[in-house]
Amino acid sequence: MERFFISLLLGVFCFGVFSCETQEKGDNLEGIITSVEQKFIPDKRIAIFNVAAEKANNGSFVLKGETDQKKAYGFLLDTLGRMNVSVVDSIRFLPEAQLGEKVWALVTLSVIPMRKEPRYSAEMVSQTIMGTPVKLLDKRGGWYQIQTPDQYIGWVSGSGISEFTQAEMDNWKAADRYIFTKVTGSAMAEAKENAAPISDLVLGCIFEVDGKMNGFLKVHFPDGREGFVRETDCIKFSEWEAETPEAGSIIETAERLLGSPYLWGGTSTKGVDCSGFTKTSYFSQGIMLARDASQQALYGEKLDISNFNFQLGDLLFFGRSKEHITHVGLYMGDGKFIHSSGRVKINSFNPEDDNFEAGRKKQLVAASRVLNSLNKGQIILIKDHPWYN
Q1: CA distances from 142 to 68, 119, 125, 145, 158 (A)
Q2: Judging by DSSP bridges, how do beta strands 61-67 and 111-115 pair with one another?
Q3: Engineered SS bond to 118: which of 7, 85, 155, 282, CB 3.0-4.6 Å?
Q4: Rounded to an integer, what distance in angstroms lies between the CA atom of residue 277 and that of residue 345?
Q5: What pLDDT is attached to residue 27?
Q6: Which candidate in 220, 234, 327, 385 is catalytic?
Q7: Is the omega angle on the peptide bond into residue 113 within 30 degrees of 0, that is, cis?
Q8: pLDDT digits over 299-358, tens only?
Q9: What are the phi and psi torsion angles at 73 (to 5°)?
Q10: What 8-state DSSP symbol labels residue 350?
Q11: Residues near 176 by beta carbon (within 8 Å), at least 6 away in sequence
């Protein structure tokens, strides 16, 4: 297959509109880079392949940029070698060498924003929450490029994470961990009501515990801070991830977020966008979905949408077409669905209901069932995710 693809590349660039003799080598090289990117990197939200070619004074070309994709990197160099193209390889392979052995991190604050670029004014593309294990890819000043367990890539301030080696991450996996199950809450400085808070908490925060006192858990955050959290607000992580996911419980979590504000890039109970809402609802039951609506639509059992005959918890996708999905919600039964649009709210496909949403009914382009597709593609049980266990 690789030989065929290389031959195809050669054919495209040697026998296209311009011949190899008349077309600039630099154009050929850029075309090859683009073709390799298209072959190996179908979604740049979850992979890095920023490579370009610059012509050197001696007539050769310098490959610059960065990538975390070994197969794409190797295939590109192999292809250029077969074509006898003279190049100087200056591509940075991620994780960046300056990170040393600390190529992992845990989130230390209740919620931290992930941004498109390493600056506070850049677009927020996602969020990640306390105790989430992330892979470190690059560092610029006080910013880190990270990849979250759902493979999403973005930049976060170093003030919100603590770096770890693989050995330290293994110790964390073996520790006595609990997960916060309320929508919001606090960790207190003392094991008593009305004590001063040391951190706010959101649904899904994970922390280590090394004791109990007066109905509180003594917790350790990844950055070394200690505090106390009400035991009734948490569940032992191993027990939580072992529970069988249920559609009814997913919808219960979704309803607990009713009225929460829509927040572009939001994936926490402080504010959610449409896919962050479905993602948070499923995560409450130990299931990790892909980050964006268009990504979530790729996985699960594809359903017939012609008769609106859905089951509790099915994902409903809206947009101009199956190829251009812009919104997602959760089916609740009885023709109703819950979604984040302006705020988390319930609408209906039934024209007789007060909350009928004619526009959304027309825009429904796909639906999928998640609970019968666990551990298929990007529908992953937390208990089976190697970053957590």
Answers
A1: 21, 9, 19, 10, 5
A2: unpaired
A3: 155
A4: 11
A5: 61
A6: 327
A7: no
A8: 999 999 999 999 999 999 999 999 999 999 999 999 999 999 999 999 999 999 999 999
A9: -60, -50
A10: -
A11: 208, 209, 210, 236
For residues 285 and 249, is the Cβ–Cβ distance under 8 A? yes
- Residue 141 class from Cβ within 10 Å (0-12 exposed, 13-18 middle, 19+ buried)? exposed
Question: Cα–Cα distances in Å, from 48 out to 93, 118, 191?
Answer: 10, 15, 45
DSSP codes of every residue in 148-194:
-TT--EEEEEGGGEEEE-HHHHHHHHHS-EEEE-SSEEEEESSSSTT
Active-site residue flag, 327: yes
Q: Can you say how many angstroms the Cα of residue 128 is from the centroid of all Cα atoms in its chain?
A: 9
What's the distance, Cα to Cα, between the start and end of the chain in Å? 36
Q: What residues contact 60, with CB distance under 8 A and at least 6 apart?
A: 86, 87, 88
pTM to 2 decimals? 0.91
CA distances from 366 to 212, 327, 328, 373, 377 (A): 48, 11, 9, 16, 18
Query: Hey, is 57 helix, strand or coil?
Result: coil
| 161-182 per-position pLDDT tens digit | 999 999 999 999 999 999 999 9
Q: Which phi and psi (to 5°) does residue 157 adopt?
A: -70, 140
Q: Are the CB atoms for 117 and 44 separated by under 8 Å?
A: no
Considering the candidates 234, 324, 339, 385, report the single residue annotated as catalytic: 339
Amino acid, res. 242? A
Taking a C-beta distance cutoff of 8 angstroms, is the pair 145, 154 a contact? yes
State both tokens at 296: 């979530």
Please list the alpha-helical segments (H only) found in the chain.
Answer: 2-14, 25-40, 70-82, 166-174, 237-242, 247-256, 274-283, 293-296, 358-363
Task: Give the rounded distance of the alpha carbon of 272 from its chain centre.
Answer: 14
Active-site residue identified among 220, 274, 324, 385:
274
Instruction: State the number of CA atoms in the 13 A half-sphere of 93 facing the CB.
Output: 7
In eight-state DSSP terms, residue 15 is B
Phi, psi values for residue 110, rounded to 5°: -55, -45
- Asked whether residue 19 carries a pLDDT value surpassing 90, the answer given is no
CA–CA dist 146, 141 (Å, integer): 14
- Report how far residue 27's alpha carbon sits from residue 320's, in angstroms, rounded to the nearest whole number: 35
Residue 348 CA, chain-centre distance (Å), reads 29
